[in-house]
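Incident log, structure service

09:12 report received: a user says their structure output differs between two submissions of the same chain.
09:20 pulled the input from the user's history:
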Amino acid sequence: MAVDQELLEILACPICKEEVKLIPLTDQRRTVVRDKYREKFRGEEPVVEQGLQCVKCRRVYPVVSDIPVMLVDEAFDDA
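09:34 re-ran on a clean worker, output below:
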């Protein structure tokens, strides 16, 4: 399952309010995000493969188990 296209059309960067696009994350970034969310997914391994990148400020918000995490504190500057 992936992020729904209709949801992608309404999501926006919480900082600059611009649109976001789905991008693949590097192996290193996937590992960091997966390790961070592992405790929150009791009994199952979180799936981390993609992020949502703002077209203006370039911040990336992780997508964890098909859930976009659109929190400013969870964003990072590169994929």
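09:41 both user submissions now match this output. Likely a transient worker issue. Closing.
09:42 reviewer note: The chain has one domain: 5-74. Residues 17 and 30 are 25 Å apart (CA to CA).
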